Amino acid sequence: MSIEAMNQPRPLFRTRRELFRDSGVGFASIALAGLAKGWGLDAENPLAPRAPHFAPRAKRVIFLFMHGGPSQIDTFDYKPLLERDHGKPLPFEKPRIQFAQTGNLLKSPWKFRQYGESGAWVSELFPNVAQQVDKLCFIKSLYGTNEAHGGALLALHTGSATFVRPSMGSWALYGLGSENESLPGFITLCPTLGHGGVNNWSSAFLPGIYQGAPIGNASVPAKQAGFAHLTSQEIPADLQRAQLELLREINGEHRERRAADAALEARIASYELAFRMQTEAPGVMDIAGESPQTLKLYGIDDPKTENFGRQCLLARRFAESGVRFVQCTHSYKWDQHENLLDGHSNNAREVDKPIAGLLHDLHARGMLEDTLVLWAGEFGRTPTAQGENGRDHNPHGFTIWFAGGGTKPGFSYGATDDYGFYATQDRVHLHDFHATLLALLGLDHERLTYRYAGRDFRLTDVAGRVVKEIFA
């Protein structure tokens, strides 16, 4: 092309071929794939807020996902007998199916002590989180059925280890909508691309508008992560608006000639959302206006904690802006089959201060009351040794915790056996966990259904008990 041709002004409207080639410039590339019609949703804004089934305790969720499987017996589930019987054989049967073989009992290399008025036991791995322990609500008897990372991640995120199902973030957004029409209602920060990848934040057969919107991925530092093609330096907003109106008209004509085209509906909705995001998202993503004290609180002044601290701060900013479900991922680091001491020490050092900072900040801003914070890995680890100084995967009994969102502060529910291998007291299956999370948001897990392939589906499949004992 000649210099003269390049300098010719662009026509306001182009051919349809040119329009479809170029109109994506400036639109955020969000994976959205299917918007069903006829559910009584707002046709102009399918993300509009909707009434819950009953009074909610929480309005939004921040999920802190520890990818790899942190050890419950080295963090929050203190087992004195494990220390006493170090090196001895496990005095009962190991699971029939194991990810790998393990040997004798391995005590924790970290000291535990009690903190706060609740007297909760926390290991020295988490000195900052320990100072917030009276805000935490522990479930120490969670269990699943899958020993492998891929299946366990899918089970935690979607309720199924074997089939592609909508993620819990998508279900929450489908049930409640969003409080900000100019941002995605479900955002996942620096998610892992392994062990199920996009299926962990997928809307699956739910309408694509409820898909999680990734910001970066686990291989991209949080400082560099963002929405791709969020703004255009070439096309002004009024021209983009004109292009979008023409595209809407073309798509509308196309839609009228078809019975139902959910994928087309999703594309139309995604273009509109992406256009609105250009004015909203950059400001939320920009943390330059945060005070030095806040940046320090989250550990953003320290190279060791900066990455996860930035995720936690962005999670607070998105939650403040009305996003329904935000996930932060510390990936993929907690899988210590060997060298437990160095591995878990390094991992905890990266997340301890940011997590404590988030809890403190949410509380100080009055947001913790209606924001549900969740900390979890896909499973725990064995009290028996793998090799000389590692632990294997253990889905049979592990610890997660909630904070805020109407859960009991300074409370612990359930227990594992004396060595921390099996959930034994007040056992909580992953389906129970999902039922409880939805109930905290005001959603009945048995009523939150979607008809697909001739049957009604739900996050909890055909099971699930709400653990009301943890409700404040």
Structure description:
It contains twelve helices and 17 strands. With 472 residues, it is of the alpha/beta class. The protein is globular and about 75 Å long. 30% of the residues lie in helices and 16% in strands. α7 (237-256) runs antiparallel to α8 (262-285) and α10 packs parallel to α11 (340-364). The chain has helices at residues 3-6, 16-22, 80-84, 127-130, 149-158, 168-176, 237-256, 262-285, 292-297, 306-320, 340-364, 430-440, and strands spanning 60-66, 112-115, 120-123, 136-143, 186-189, 213-215, 325-330, 371-376, 380-386, 390-394, 398-403, 411-413, 415-416, 423-425, 428-429, 450-452, 455-457. Strands 1, 4, 5, 6, 7, 8, 11, 12 and 15 form a nine-stranded mixed β-sheet that branches. The chain has a two-stranded antiparallel ribbon with strand order 2-3. Strands 9-10 form a two-stranded antiparallel ribbon. A hairpin with a 3-residue loop joins β9 and β10 (390-394). It has one domain: 3-Layer(aba) Sandwich (Alkaline Phosphatase, subunit A), CATH 3.40.720.10. The N and C termini lie far apart (68 Å).
Q: Summed up, what is this model?
A:
The protein has helices at residues 3-6, 16-22, 80-84, 127-130, 149-158, 168-176, 237-256, 262-285, 292-297, 306-320, 340-364, 430-440, and strands at 60-66, 112-115, 120-123, 136-143, 186-189, 213-215, 325-330, 371-376, 380-386, 390-394, 398-403, 411-413, 415-416, 423-425, 428-429, 450-452, 455-457.
